[in-house]
Amino acid sequence: MVSMQMNNTETQFDKLEKNLHALSTRMPDLPLSEVMLCRLTMHLGREMATMLDQQIRPFGIAEAEFRVLTTLFSQPEGVAHPSDLCARAAQSPANMSRICDALVSRDLITRVMSAHDRRRMVLRITEQGEELVRRLLPTMFAPLRDLYSGISEEEKRHLISQLKGLYARMLEAPKLEAVERAE
Fold first, then answer.
1. Does 176 fall in a domain?
2. From CA 1, how far away is CA 180, in angstroms rounded?
3. d(CA 23, CA 20)
4. CA-CA to 123 of 20 to 30 Å: which in 15, 76, 139, 177?
5. What is the pLDDT of residues 23-50, one digit of tens each?
6. Domain range for residue 17?
7. pLDDT tens-place string over residues 148-172
């Protein structure tokens, strides 16, 4: 399955590269390498999310929900505030609220008012939630190892370092302003 996806992806990347080269002939200032890296990163992220979602869906849970559940599982005593989980699970506050509603409805987490601050909620993973994480997470190990099998440990550490640096620069970069419409 992975090799078939790789062949399809290679074809898509070839088409993408040809398209960007054609675009660069019409727009000579196009930062070709940077645009290619951006497009590849975006495509890789979508494909990775799809792959993980295919592993998770048979268990009746969405990838974002599982990410929040595993993040909560990793916390001391399985407890956290929703705002703390937003950054750790890469979710917006609105999406976190929806995800928590879904996890509460399936009895995978509980949500109660904080005893120390009535304005804050406390989330706690339930025994059923812990059981799901312990059962599901190991099924993802083999596909991930297979996916990264052609990359040495040193190359993985280097890639992680580069991606962290890119992410930090992206957070520091000025936001693109919307281009005013020409009338």
1. no
2. 45
3. 5
4. 139
5. 999 999 999 999 999 999 998 988 888 8
6. 1-59
7. 999 999 999 999 999 999 989 988 8
Q: Please give the backbone phi and psi of residue 16, each rounded to the nearest 5 degrees, phi first.
A: -60, -45
Strands 121-125 and 79-80: antiparallel
Tokens 């005013």 found at:
180
SS3 for 126-182 is CHHHHHHHHHHHHHHHHHHHHHCCCCCHHHHHHHHHHHHHHHHHHHHCCCCCCCCCC
The one-letter code for the residue type at 27 is M
Q: Please check the confidence at residue 5 and state whether its pLDDT lies above 80.
A: no
Q: Specify which residues 113 forms β-bridges with.
A: 121
Considering all CA atoms of the chain, what is the largest pairwise distance in Å, rounded to the nearest integer?
Answer: 63
Q: Residue 84 pairs with which residues in a beta bridge? A: none
Pull the structure tokens for residue 68: 């929040």
Its pTM stands at: 0.74
For the segment 86-109, the average pLDDT, to the nearest whole number, is 89
